Amino acid sequence: MAKQQQEHVIDLDQSHFCCSVCLDLLKEPVTIPCGHTYCKVCIEGCWDQEEQRGKYSCPQCREEFSQRPVLRKNNMLAEVVEDLKKTSTQQAPPPAAVACAGPSDVSCDFCPETKPNKATMSCLNCLASYCPTHIEPHYSVPVLKKHQLVSATIPLQEKMCMKHNKLMEIYCQTDKMCICYLCIIDEHKGHSTVSAAAERAEEQKQLTVSQKKVQQREKERKKELNQLIQALKKYKSCSGTAVKTSDKIFDELITSIKKKRTLVKQLMQSQEKTAVTKAEKLQLQLEDEITKLRRRDSELEQLSHVDDNIHFIQTFQSLSTSCESPDLPSDPVVCPQHSFEAVTGCVSELRGHMEKLLNDTWPRISVTVSTVDVVMPPVPKTREEFLRYCCPLTLDVNSAYRYLSLSQENRRATSSSRDNYIGIHSDRFTSIKQVLCREGLSNRCYWEVIWSGCTCSVAVSYKDISRSSSDSEFGNNNKSWSLDCSQQGYSFRHNKGSKTVSGPRSSKIGVYLDYRAGTLSFYSISVTMTLLHKENTTFTQPLYPGLGVNDVSCWPSSGSYAELIKLW
């Protein structure tokens, strides 16, 4: 039974039985009222330094005692520590190959300086580093076996106090730095201090939490990477399909144009053949008639020299009856130049129409292609990042309700009791105190609105929103989205639906639109930015920012305003 208990002690971690003041195994352990245990000499030394204060504290938890506690030896713990001292021995590690120290390695302090070996262990008692050869005595000499060994990862000089040249074994929580024993009674006197081991244990917990966060972040990033890889594959596939489809469409257009070219060519050649055939037939007829006329002329010439009158009269009568020419086709031969100029004119006009169509369509194709992304840009997180997307906005006078007064370079809309009628316009709201901006947005944009009074509406709307019906109010139709701000809180409205929005009250509202991503976000702005509401949808038309001022329930029912802040 005793042997089993002894084996159990051997398995215990020695660090659990170390004094947090001297960092060595407890010597004559005493437990103070707060529950922490120290060497009797160590705790008495600490309390001797606090004698003048009249208060005594625990070096670990800092609990204070008005009277100096009476110290009694913890016999059970003393026996455990004594058994641990008797049975605990340092086991030498298997022999390791001795290597020369490199520029970034810790050198053995016992090797020749000209060619030192790489140190593998450092002794915190000897304050020296050893290579595998020179560390051997620490595994065999009884006195050295009790020394505390650590891996030689950094030079011991970096663990030494630069002022006192002592090993830093204490952590000052007040100044957040490692110190030695002498520092406690010097410039760090009265500070909150703990052993380096205790601080390590505490920060080890934080490390575990940080590591979990890093692992979670890594998991998220791996998921995002996988999504990106899949999106990239899909993007390439879609791009290849689009290129093939475009090539096919252009090939069909080219084929269609070639067919029309062939058809026009055939029409002109057919027309040419018909006209040439007709002309050649007429040519033969004319040539035949000319031959006959020449022969008749020759006969008449011969007859004119005949002396016999009777022969002359009889012959001339027979010749004169056959002098008449046969009827030729009455259709005139039209000059080909005029006919085919009209044809080439029509073809040229067709070319002009096609070029205009291509020139008009190309910008839309170019813009559409340029907006196809694999990865959307990151969403801004700070006001400085949002301000990168600020855009100049101006209220449209032609859309303003007649009892709204525009000022501040047409950026402020103020409720007015005076009729500001400036003429009839199809864009003017006729029943609601609201106004749209002149600029239509179809990209990433950010703007801010400051408001005062009873109720303000910060909205976006399509251009074709109704201007006169009862459904023309922002958020009361499917063409506008509105955040209503009042002294009581916020609400979001769209298509006659209303949703209460919680968040800090502020007279300044930020609006962020990511048109392509289909998101519309509203923020409460004070010292920080707080997201009030984010709407996800698909926009089909450019969006126009709008402002509404509703002070019907306020007294006086004028003076309330909403203003676009000049950020640009």
From TrEMBL:
Highest taxon of source: Eukaryota
Key word Coiled coil present: yes
A family per Pfam: SPRY
One GO BP annotation of this record: innate immune response
Residues covered by the B box-type domain: 156-196
Database matches in PROSITE patterns: B302_SPRY, ZF_BBOX, ZF_RING_1, ZF_RING_2
Domain B30.2/SPRY, residue spans: 373-566
Transmembrane segments: none
Keywords carried by this UniProt record: Coiled coil, Immunity, Innate immunity, Metal-binding, Zinc, Zinc-finger
SUPFAM superfamilies reported for this sequence: B-box zinc-binding domain, Concanavalin A-like lectins/glucanases, RING/U-box
Listed InterPro entries: B30.2/SPRY, B30.2/SPRY_sf, Butyrophylin_SPRY, ConA-like_dom_sf, E3_ubiq-ligase_TRIM/RNF, PRY, SPRY_dom, TRIM8/14/16/25/29/45/65_CC
Coiled coil regions in record: 198-235, 276-303
Residue ranges of domain RING-type in the record: 19-62
One GO cellular component term noted in the UniProt record for this chain: cytoplasm
Keyword rRNA-binding annotated: no
Single GO MF descriptor: zinc ion binding
Name of protein: Tripartite motif-containing protein 16-like
Protein source organism: Sparus aurata (Gilthead sea bream)
Lineage of the species this protein comes from: Eukaryota, Metazoa, Chordata, Craniata, Vertebrata
